[in-house]
Specification:
Distance between the termini of chain B: 54 Å
CATH architecture of the largest domain in chain B: 3-Layer(aba) Sandwich
Oligomer: heterodimer
Structural class of chain B: alpha/beta
Strand content of chain A: 5-15%
Shape of chain B: globular
Helix content of chain B: 40-55%
Radius of gyration of chain B: 21 Å
CATH superfamily of chain A: Thiamin diphosphate (ThDP)-binding fold, Pyr/PP domains
CATH superfamily of the largest domain in chain B: Thiamin diphosphate (ThDP)-binding fold, Pyr/PP domains
Order of helices and strands of chain A: HEHEHEHHEHEHEHHEEHH
Mean pLDDT of chain A: 94
Number of strands of chain A: 8
Low-confidence stretches of chain A: none
Largest sheet of chain B: 7 strands, mixed
Number of helices of chain B: 13
CATH architecture of chain A: 3-Layer(aba) Sandwich
Number of domains of chain A: 1
Mean pLDDT of chain B: 97
Chain lengths: 300, 401
């Protein structure tokens, strides 16, 4: 993934925290897509980091392509309008529409507009960068926060043990929800596997219709680990089987990386402050859910 | 379709959108707006209109889609009211802030609770300060004409603000009039295609990349607000100019306000929407039967608020009575407040009366309006104000008042 300066869609200079995983996700994805794109960035860490972030009118606008921020929950609908507008003006060919949103903007507040957009079959790539909580507002739980994780709104106390319990998923299964809409392409990716990420984004660009890619990107600030360990944390999520890399093309699921020797989830969890309260029993509950997922996929 | 035809305001508005050659329509069904976008869907499906239609998953999504479509340079239309307009609220500010010339028809309807689908102006009043231009029309013909004008006003370089064309739900939306329909050629000449440029407009153009809608710190926010305010001020002249050009092309003219028999009037009633038509009849009767010099001032442009025109029309009035179809809880009514603010700084300060009528679809009858004029006449004669705020059509027995 070597790019010459002229080919960079996202150039250096942004306001993200040190060690930000989301910036890597967005940079890899946009650089892979090239110049003929229009980007909508939902309210989120990335909006603040790459859409001005308090330095208007000059400064941290690292995107070399047209980009717009409207609101938090609008991504699906705004790109729908862009798709229709370009089509009506006879300018649709050769332009890729890209929506970028965080996990809260996707799985919670933006789910309705996203569902509408994919159900109507608009032509766009949706990139959900999943850092498993509302990190822009300081680490509040979202629909994709992992079970038992402590956040500022799912804290640990004598009556609560962090995020929700007793579910059959570790977190809201957004890729499955997208796949259930019957869209042509759904994929998961990780910042620790950039070649796989780029391949998926490039493949999505060749497909007409709605494409959904959810990129797992650890947040050093929110999860509580050293900022030098972001990629390592993302890799551990995959190697422990907590985050599975796969594609769903026209309904058919293919696992992209069959982890040969799955590590125990404990190795991943215990490195993060958000899980320091976990008991052995709680860790094994998470391990059981991960094991079950792998069994379902016939991988274990 | 040209010539004359009997049609409702909803149909007339759909015809206007077709004639304006809007490229994207995005909306969500809500009574009494729905038939506007049903007609438009039909035009598009039959190939009579070259545009894309998106039925969004909510009004929130509809306005977001309008913003997206407008940001890539398309002429965009939507329609809504009531709960739907309230659901759009957040995005209405975004549309105005991004300076996107979206046109929306609002079939004025009350807001829950109590639940009702009938006319008052509460819905549009909730969007009063969003930065949109708001024009309230009186007839179905005016609805058609104003939608065509609205695109031209919104897209004017001095304005670049979205426009709401507001008309009374059911009273106009579902009532038919004999409508004059201009020809496509004439409308195209009056309103050429929208051709934005990224050097000037919020335009997502891969050949001229720009970033829009990003974070703006305190060092710059006020200036954005100032420019929007300035655009509203400039819009007065643009509305006037566009209205004149429309008159030159089509022979019909409306103005920012319409002053009906106000020149020699002791009492001027200020109102918006269909109530104005009823009030004109009452004015004629009062003058004829009682010899009272009364008049009615129709506020057509509510945002921008036509201060100069209001002052001119009330220059000789002893009493100005404001009839509101909306309430500002805890203080009074929005139109009254604006009129009061306009008159206060003026050397001629008539007695100002505040009336609420027609809430939740209650018919504002000639009787109601006549009673308002009678109260106003009494104030004109005595120089006194009986009460600061009058509920003109309140059933007092029901509330134990």
């Amino acid at each position: 993934m070597a790019y010459s300066d002229e080919d960079l869609i996202m150039v250096p200079g942004n306001r993200a925290c040190p060690g930000c995983g989301a910036v890597l996700a967005v940079r890899h994805a946009l650089n892979a897509l090239g110049k003929n794109i229009i980007v909508h960035v939902a309210t989120s860490c990335m909006e603040v980091s790459i859409m001005g972030g308090g330095v208007f009118p000059r400064g941290e606008y690292p995107l070399m392509v047209p980009s717009i921020h409207t609101a938090f929950e609008t991504s699906g609908a705004v790109v729908s309008g862009m798709d229709a507008g370009l089509k009506a003006l006879g300018k649709r060919e050769g332009i890729q529409l890209v929506a970028i949103a965080g996990d809260g903007g996707t799985a919670d507040i933006g789910l309705q507009t996203l569902s509408g957009a994919v159900e109507r079959g608009h032509d766009f790539i949706y990139i959900c960068y999943d850092n498993e909580a509302y990190m822009n507002t300081g680490n509040q739980r979202s629909g994709t926060t992992t079970m038992f994780a402590a956040t500022t709104t799912s804290p640990v106390g004598s009556k609560k043990r962090g995020e929700r319990h007793l579910l059959i998923n570790l977190k809201k299964d957004m890729p499955a929800i997208m796949a259930a809409h019957g869209i042509p392409y759904v994929a998961t990716a990780s910042i620790a596997y950039p070649a796989d990420l780029v391949k998926k984004v490039k493949k999505a660009a060749t497909i007409r219709g709605p494409k959904y890619i959810q990129i797992h990107c650890p947040c050093a600030t929110g999860w509580g680990f050293p900022e030098s360990k972001t990629v390592e944390m993302a890799r551990l999520a995959v190697q422990t089987g907590s985050w599975i890399l796969y594609e769903i093309e026209n309904g058919k699921k293919t696992v992209s990386l069959k982890v040969a020797q799955r590590k125990p989830v404990k190795e991943y969890l215990t490195l993060q402050k958000r899980f320091t309260h976990l008991t052995d029993d709680e860790i094994s509950q998470i391990q059981e859910l991960v094991d079950r997922k792998w069994k379902e996929l016939d991988l274990s | 379709m040209t010539g004359q035809r009997l049609m409702s305001a909803n149909r007339a508005v759909a015809e206007a959108v077709k004639l304006s050659e809007a490229k994207v329509v995005s909306a969500y069904p809500i009574t009494p707006q729905t038939s506007i976008v049903e007609y438009l869907s039909e035009f598009i499906a039959k190939g009579d209109m070259d545009a894309e239609f998106i039925q969004a998953e909510s009004e929130f999504g509809a306005m977001s889609a309008c913003i997206g479509a407008s940001s890539v340079g398309a002429r965009v239309f939507t329609a809504s009211c009531s709960q739907g307009l309230a659901l759009m609220h957040e995005l209405n500010y975004v549309a105005a802030g991004l300076r996107l010339p979206i046109v929306m028809a609002v079939t004025n309807r009350q807001l829950s609770q109590p639940l009702g689908m009938w006319c008052d102006h509460s819905d549009a009043m909730g969007e009063r300060d969003a930065g949109w231009i708001q024009i309230y029309v009186e007839t179905c013909q005016e609805a058609l004409d104003t939608v065509i004008q609205a695109f031209k006003i919104a897209e004017h370089k001095d304005v670049l603000l979205p426009v709401m064309v507001c008309f009374d739900g059911f009273i106009l939306s579902h009532t038919s009039e004999n409508i004059k329909i201009p020809s496509q050629e004439a409308v195209r000449k009056f309103l050429p295609a929208y051709k934005p440029d990224a050097d000037y407009h919020t335009l997502m153009d891969t050949k001229k990349p720009l970033a829009a809608g990003g974070g703006c710190p305190p060092a710059y926010g006020t200036e954005f607000d100032f420019k929007k305010f300035e655009a509203q001020e400039k819009a007065k002249e643009v509305i006037r100019k566009v209205d004149q050009e429309f008159a030159d092309s089509f022979g019909r003219q409306y103005g920012l306000v319409e002053a009906y028999r106000c020149d020699d009037a002791d009492v001027v009633l200020i109102a918006m929407g269909t109530v104005v038509g009823t009030a004109k009849e009452v004015v004629d009767k009062m003058r004829e039967e009682k010899g009272w010099p009364v008049g009615v001032l129709k506020l057509r442009s509510y945002r921008p608020f036509p201060k100069e025109d209001v002052l001119k029309a009330t220059a000789h009035a002893k009493v100005v009575a404001v009839l509101n179809r909306a309430i500002s809880y805890g203080v009074g009514t929005p139109v009254y407040s604006d009129v009061a603010a306009t008159l206060y700084g003026n050397s001629h300060r008539p007695i100002l009366l505040n009336f609420i009528a027609g809430m939740g679809g209650r018919d504002v009858t000639q009787k109601t309006i006549a009673a308002v004029f009678e109260k106003a006449k009494k104030s004109a004669d005595t120089g006194k104000v009986e009460s600061e705020l009058e509920w003109a059509d309140l059933n007092k027995a029901l509330v134990g008042a």
